[in-house]
Amino acid sequence: MDLKMLCEKMEDPDQIHYKALVDGFKRLQNSGSFTDVTINVGQKTFRCHKALLTAISSYFDTMFSSDMREKATGHVTFPTMDPDLFEMVLHYIYTGDCDLNTDNVVEILRISSFLRITSLQTLCEEFLKKHLSWDNCFDVFRLSVAYDCKSLRSKSADMVAASFKEISKSDKFLELEANELADIINSDYINISPEEAICDIVIKWIQKDESSRAKKAGILIDKIRLSFLKPEYLVMLREKQVFQADEKCRECLNDAIKYSLLPARQQEIYRRNTRHRIHADLEEVIVVVGGCATANPPYARSLRVICYSFIKQQWYELCPLPYDPGIEFATCTYGNDIFVSGGGSMQKSLLVMIQVKMFGLSCRA
């Protein structure tokens, strides 16, 4: 057998070391040798090793690194924790294995969050992400907020947003905390249009308990795409006492009114609240007007107008130019319309490309 074949048959040195460590930890757990701390959970007692506990749990690391009573006595008690589930968590600490299922994953997540075992919490997050459904997304989202599960929170929030039209009519919608509602209405995937309807839902939530919820108006108004509200609706919002009383609300509403009054400058302003949602009638695209149709002489100019959709990730053909403006023509935007002026062949021409629907432009010379 040559050296190459021998190397291919050998296990990775890191894997060999990892397997030896895990086998050793299992032996220590099963034998109870060299234990230096006792953990009482319900009616069960577990003999453990501080070094392993502190290596993976910042909760235990803090406990045994400070002058807490448990450090001195070597006894830890969790009177309200489920002993069987704690045993599963302890098995994970020693072996890296945890038999997650839909019945135990939520409680395992709670324990791993309490003990600050980040790696196990990540495993629980990934499990829940794979099992997200329209039936459980709302409860999973609230769970992810409670335990600061960032990736799960983002995915479940988008899923809740996609069914928010139905959720907003239910009683559980009114039970949301302000930061939870902010996450949902911040999502690009919210399935409610126009933006005024989303704002109406936020007002409904505030009015459920206005005396305590009014102070949260600022973090909510910041997540609404105010730039796409009708001017008269913006003025109506600004006159509401709940928004007048909040500095953040006043600032956001004034910025939105300025945005609506300056259509020629809108393309220069790009923030999250000036970005169209996925289900909106409009979206941001790149538009390419004219140019060369051939790469080599004799050069021919193109009348094509194409645009790229970031949502669909593909190019679309739009209405072509009605004539060849020649070289060095100028383009600019005003609101959602594109203006093409001048050019070597048509120096006194002006072409207006009017947006009429998604990826549809009508041309007017």
UniProtKB/TrEMBL annotation:
It comes from Tegillarca granosa. Keywords: Kelch repeat, Repeat. Transmembrane segments: none annotated. SMART domains: BACK, BTB. It comes from the Eukaryota. This is BTB domain-containing protein. InterPro entries: BACK (IPR011705), BTB/POZ_dom (IPR000210), Kelch-typ_b-propeller (IPR015915), SKP1/BTB/POZ_sf (IPR011333). Gene3D superfamilies: 1.25.40.420, Kelch-type beta propeller, Potassium Channel Kv1.1, Chain A. The keyword Repeat applies. The lineage of its organism: Eukaryota, Metazoa, Spiralia, Lophotrochozoa, Mollusca. Residues 35-102 form the BTB domain.
